[in-house]
Amino acid sequence: MFADRERHLARIREGDSLTLIPDPPIPGSPEVWVHLDTGDPVGRLPSEIGEWLAPWMWEGGAARARAIRVSGRDTPSWRRLLLEVSCPAAVES
Fold first, then answer.
1. Which residue has better confidence, 93 or 34?
2. What's the 3-state SS for the chain?
3. How far does Cα 32 stand from its chain's mean position?
4. How many CB atoms lie within 10 A of CB 43?
5. What is the pLDDT, as a whole number, of residue 58?
6. Residue 90: its pLDDT value, please?
7. Secondary structure letter of residue 2 according to DSSP
8. Top-ranked range on mean pLDDT: pick from 4-8, 14-18, 27-31
9. How far apart are CA 33 and CA 68, in angstroms?
10. Which of 18, 28, 53, 88 is most exposed, with minimal Cβ within 10 Å?
């Protein structure tokens, strides 16, 4: 797997919180990357999500990710980490 991200999956447990970081706001199809709290990348969200979530995060929107299922090498790489992504509503003052 690219950048040896696969080895980090062994450290993730169901229920763990993960950090979402969007690509910089440059032309193209933006991606949102999933990182451990150590900063190590473990993958990215599907493009269908990154295309709308990255611009929303650039504008100050917050998003959280939580591991729902972590599978081993017998599972295709794109299905090894199942996340729940939530976007808490902003509180108006």
1. 34
2. CHHHCHHHHCCCCCCCEEEEEECCCCCCCCCEEEECCCCCEEEECCHHHHHHHHHHHHCCCCCEEEEEEECCCCCCHHHCEEEEEECCCCCCC
3. 6
4. 20
5. 93
6. 58
7. G
8. 14-18
9. 17
10. 28
Give dist(CA 45, CA 58) in Å, integer.
16
Radius of gyration of the chain (CA): 14
Q: For residue 21, give the amino acid letter.
A: I
d(CA 51, CA 46): 9
Amino acid identity of 86? S
Domain ranges of the chain: 2-86
Question: What CATH number does the domain located at 2-86 have?
Answer: 3.30.70.2330
Instruction: Look up residue 5 and give its amino acid.
Output: R
